[in-house]
Amino acid sequence: MKIDPTNFGDRYGEDAFGRRIDATPRVVVLHETVYSLSSALNTFMTPHPRDEDQVSYHTLVGQDGRVVDLVDPLNRAYGAGFSAFLGEWAITNKKLKGSVNNFALHLSLETPPSGANASASHAGYTTQQYDALALVLSGWIRSFNLPPAAITTHRHVDLGGERGDPRSFDWSKLQVRLAALGDLCVS
């Protein structure tokens, strides 16, 4: 699927101050759409010329397990604003705060209808979503040599304290699937 080119870009080899930075993907940030898959796709196809409005994920997973690739993993998606992973961020625009976007892969799960609100939880994600999520993550783990510990959530990288997604995420459901694929050792 083609999204508007204002909503993604190249990964930077230098930060906003001219220092070399490593743009190799080394963290996966999980998100949720909050509304329907079609609503999210419409947002990504809409031009957002202002840097602070740009938004995208590399991949979306619908409630039916359908995988929609939006941004090539070698490119930069705009999934997290003011954010850090294990104390690391990159400042690629002097007008904006640091972010993980330059070295992150972003994947969003379609939110169930019960989650189209601001509550702290919802009905959760489908079996099909967890199955598809594990397959996408397995591919990324192998392609980019990522340890499973590099899989995190928007809630955990957000430094502004505004994000809580993906709500109602069940880590054990993902762990079982990654273990079955040989990408995680569970005792």
Can you walk me through this structure?
This protein has 187 residues and is an alpha/beta fold. The protein has one domain (5-180): Lysozyme-like, CATH 3.40.80. Helices cover 22% and strands 13% of the residues. It has four helices and seven strands; from the N terminus they run E-E-H-E-E-E-E-H-E-H-H. The chain has helices at 37-45, 127-144, 154-157, 171-180; strands at 8-9, 27-32, 59-61, 67-69, 76-77, 104-109, 151-153. The strands form two sheets. Strands 4-3-6-2-7 form a five-stranded mixed β-sheet. Strands 1-5 form a two-stranded antiparallel sheet. Strand 3 (59-61) and strand 4 (67-69) form a beta hairpin. Helix 2 (127-144) crosses helix 4. The protein is globular and about 45 Å long. The mean pLDDT is 94.
